[in-house]
Amino acid sequence: MTDRTLTATRHTHSRGATVLAAVGELDHHTAPELTRVIRETTFSPEVPVLIDLSELTYCDSTGITVLVGAYHRAREGEVPLFLVGLNDGLMHVFRIIGLDQLFTFRPTVEDAINALPA
């Protein structure tokens, strides 16, 4: 049996954006950790939120549901939200299920920061 672990952290980028990072496997066992960090994050129109998934090794439908929940929360608060660093496999899944129509993607945190209005 595989040890499913996920580490979810939050920090403020030097340019003011909130960066949430998920490292490991995001599935029905570990989704509560990322959900908690998202819930504890202030969503404000003045502070963009970047969810860094560059070190995510696995994501099931529960994980995608958590990310869609973050999207809805950001949209309600008119908060800029970026998903960052999706691997090719996860990006393919997002395209198949149409989530590329909802989310804004950037390859790196710095690319997302640079895409923000000055």
Describe the structure.
With 118 residues, the protein is α/β, with parallel strands linked by helices. It has a single domain (6-112), classed as 2-Layer Sandwich (Transcription Regulator spoIIAA), CATH 3.30.750. The chain has 4 helices and 5 strands; from the N terminus they run E-E-H-E-H-E-H-E-H.
Helix coverage percent of residues? 25-40%
What is the succession of H and E elements? EEHEHEHEH
User: How many separate structural domains?
Assistant: 1
Kindly state the mean pLDDT as a whole number?
95
CATH architectural type? 2-Layer Sandwich
What would you give as the CATH superfamily? STAS domain
The strands making up the biggest β-sheet line up spatially as 1-2-3-4-5
State which percent range the strand residues make up.
25-35%
Low-confidence runs of at least 5 consecutive residues: none
- DSSP summary, beta strand count: 5
Distance between the termini: 48 Å
